[in-house]
Target: ABC transporter ATP-binding protein
Amino acid sequence: MLEISSLNKVYESPGRRVEAIGSITFGVGAGELVCVVGPSGCGKTTLLRCVAGLLPASGGEVRVDDVPVTGPPPRMAVVFQEYGRSLFPWMTVRQNVELPLKEKRLPADRRRELVAESLGAVGLADVADAHPWQLSGGMQQRVAIARAVAYEPQVLLMDEPFAAVDAQTRADLEDLILRLWRDLGVTTLFVTHDIDEAVYLGQRVVVLSSSPTTILEDLKIDLPPERDQLTTRSLPRFGELRGHVYRQIQRARGER
Ligand SMILES: Nc1ncnc2c1ncn2[C@@H]1O[C@H](COP(=O)(O)OP(=O)(O)OP(=O)(O)O)[C@@H](O)[C@H]1O
Model:
């Protein structure tokens, strides 16, 4: 569903050249959930922006469902870290979730249905008429997730979506993502700097090196498919996998 081939990204400005991504190649199969993890500044956001068609690649290409990405693909949704900046404060929760559906030119009935379903799925049906600033950080991020889900994307990209919320909320949101992913079967690429989160959520974890970034490892997460915050995280295999990824990232940082 998603193919990233020899992707290279260089930021160039007068007197400054930063090769953020050296060369990255990997794919995400239809319905798969793949996490990308790497040391700070290794180009995770750059990678995601190139995949989302928000930044032009300097070399290589990204394909979604075999179509080269040259701008934001029509059936892709992105959830960013900064929920505070991604929701419109003057619109209600309902209006925020509905906006992309209007842009998609869906009829009013269908829009109402999708907004109600997605707000229900994230447990926010009762705050549909509130404004984002009246909600907690975790609730605002759930609105952003509902907005992405209502859009019925083929591919869902998430850029450190839970970095700014507290640990308990984060655990709840991780389980929400797993539930939605299972229910909807949406192809998901999830970028995080949190190794535990990557191992807990992913069917695979792609480990990145420091900039100029390459892939250190594309690791299959052979944990039972049903994940649970208590059981999964206390499995010996979970500890082994997180230790393995941790060592890879430490090595990558050391080589900087
Ligand atoms: N607009 C830009 N212009 C120039 N350089 C940039 C720009 N955006 C990012 N970079 C550089 O590209 C590299 C990768 O940055 P990026 O934000 O993609 O990394 P990241 O892995 O998401 O970082 P973090 O983990 O800290 O969020 C860094 O060296 C950064 O300074």
